[in-house]
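Notebook entry, structure prediction.
Reason for the run: the old model in the group folder had no record of what sequence produced it. Starting over properly, with the input documented here first.
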Amino acid sequence: MMDKDAKPGNDVPEATLWNADILLDARGVACPLPVLKARKRLAGMAEGKRLLVEATDPMAAIDIPHLCQQDGHRLVRQDRREEGDHAILRFLVERGASRPQSD
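New structure, fully documented this time:
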């Protein structure tokens, strides 16, 4: 689920939109390591704290949102920006209360 309230251009500084408690730099790391590192980092965080994940692996665009859905975290926002010959994917994830129960 994405936060639709604050967007660039609504007089909210870009840095405020991406405010996080912890940065996980997963640039240059291949699948499945970005999502595994994100899961491990989130497990050690308190509910409501925010993790900013930066990755270059295109699979992170699928894996990180799936992690949020599967583990009960909130995907606050995500974006993609071109930097040289590759893209930087950013994900702001808010730590959920606990893992949802499976059936």
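Summary: The two ends are 22 Å apart (CA to CA).
The old model has been moved to the deprecated folder.
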